[in-house]
Structure formats: C-alpha cells, structure tokens
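Practice problem: predict the structure.
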Amino acid sequence: MHFATFILKNLTRRPVRSALTVLGLAATVASVIALLGISHNIRRAVESSFERRRIDLVVTQAGKSTGLNSDFREYLVDQARQIPGVTEVAEAVVDLIDLTRDSGSTDQVMIQGWKADNFGFEDITVVAGRKLRPGDHGKAMLGSTLAGNLGKGVGDTVVFGRDNRFEVVGVFKSYVVFENGGAILPIEDARVLTAKRVTGFSIRVDTSAPDHDALVEQVREKVDALRDPEDPSVRLSAQTPESYVTSVSQIKLVRAIAWVVSVIAVLIGVISMLNTMVMSVLERTQEIGILRAVGWPRGRVVRMVLAESVGLGLAAAAVGTAAAVLGTYLLTLSPKVNGFIEPGIAPAVVAEGVGITALIGLLGGAYPAYRAARLLPTEAIRHD
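Answer:
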C-alpha cells in the first residue's frame, strides 16, 4: 500500500469525526477568507479607480483620519492648478448621506459632488439618461446598483438628507463598486448637503516630462506647501495613489480586523486539530506500535500524523473557500452592503487562507506526531 493511500485510509476510518473536524475548521477558515477577501477587494477597487483615471496625486486635508473629514476652500484647488507640471485638477465633495426611501426608511449612501468637467466622467458609462451639465441644480446621477436598490430611473425623484429632493437625470455604471452604490451630484448641491467646501482633489501631472516620477514629487512638495491666507491653519497632504490607499483608515481597520480574526481562528483551529489528532493517536496506539515493530522509523510516523493533520486542514480550506465565495455573493444581494463590497475572492486571498489552514494542520498535529513517534513496539503488546 502506498504511503498516500495509507494516509487517506486513516482519514476515512472515522468519517464522522473527520467530517466534523473539517466542518468546524472550515467555518473559521471561511470567516478569515471572507474578511481578507473583502478588505482586498476594497483596497483593489480604490487602487483601480486611480489607475484607470491616470491620477498621479490625491490631495486631502492633512491631519484628518479620513478624506471624508477633510474640508478646505476651493482657493487651494485654484492654487494647485497653477503649479508648473500640473495638467488637470478635479475637485470633489465626498461624504456619506442619509437617503430616504419611498417607504420612509433611510439608508446611508456615498455622494460625490463633481463639477460638470470633472475627468471622472471620462470612464463611467451612462446606461440611461445623461451626464451632469454645467448649471445643473437639484439633479442627480445614480449608480446602477443604487438605482436598482431603489427602483429608480431617469425622471424619478430621490430624497437626500432632510427633504432635499433631486431629479434623477442619469443612471451610470462604473468599474468602482462604491460609485455604483452611490450618486453623483453637482458640487454646489453637495456643498449644501454636507456643509463642506472641498473634501479633496485629484491631480494629473504632465506625462510628457522626461522624468515623470521626479515631476510628480516636485508637484507633491509644492502642493504640501500651499497655504490659504483666510485659513492658515489648513494644511494639505498630497499622496501618490499607493500611499493614499495604504493610509486610508477604513481600509487599515478592515485589514486589521481580518488579521485579528485570523489569529483567533488559528488558535481555535489548532486546539480543534490537536484534540482530533491526539484522540486518533490514542485509538491507534496498538497499530502504531506494530508499525514501529515492522520497521517504521520515527520520522515516517511523524510524517504520517502530520500528513493526516494537514490533509484535514486542506479539506477544510476547500470547504471554507467555497463558503467564503458563496457568502460574499450572498452579502451583495443585500441593499445594505451591495454598494460597498464586491463579490468574489481573489486568488491571492485564497492562497493566504490555504496557508493559514496548512499552518493549523502543522501546529495541531505537531504534539500528536511527537507522541506517536515516541511509542515503542512493546506498546502494541501492552495496549488493550
């Protein structure tokens, strides 16, 4: 009998116990993979939005925990436009606002206040109606996800905040999940709703410069040095998209939670695996003693127990991954969250989950393997 076949036979000898161990571990693995997958998707969505829009610098107010808390005068935006090497600047007012449904219930949605010439319009697809035009007031474009959740279309009315009614003039589709779940308003209307002037702006730097990266750094330093004479306390923070995504507190929080859950899952998984494998070794004391008597070295016994433990872990990884993928898809069916997360799990996240379960298998099987390897052939005779 081949070694691998022998391992498989041992795992299927107690099918109920093996299945329960796999299912218990799969539940923890699924939660880890789902959380890691959601944080990865959020990060990737933000990164891709900057990449596709060819944004070189993202500017928000320095010292704020999040761009949503940023607020400064448009004077600084105009000053940034005058910096040598800057080709385009697009300012915005971004915030979370209550939206009142026809039923009277409220949801929080992300609104973006843009000017009609914002270069963000370049890569969204209008699926119904039109884009915002200069001079629009009380008009709104809804992301396709939000429009579907509300059952709204062109010509309908949506209510933001306290009875602020907006006519839907367009429905759009974006490759950024947050935009599909939100709305785009004229920037002046967004200022009234949020009581903010500008929360941030994006900069495109001249791509024809001989050393583009050096020019981006020069522009970044000059933006950081800008001051508003009417509000000298305000400081700006210009960051490359990569640095900005890394610094976003919400993304860092989700990632931290995911890894805290991962650590807890590892501890729970190791204890569960340890219990299963110790019981397995105790039940097979006579068998292991006979294997030692017929010439099995201690190293082969260790490999056998560890292989069984890792095998259970990998089976749990497969079940947990499937559950995590299904779970994220089911989550996106809820109007409460489908405008904030993307379904699916990236291969890199799956690899992390498999690595975690393999580690659980190794740690949970280490002591039982050591115990099994120390059994002497005489144990087979003394064991009842």
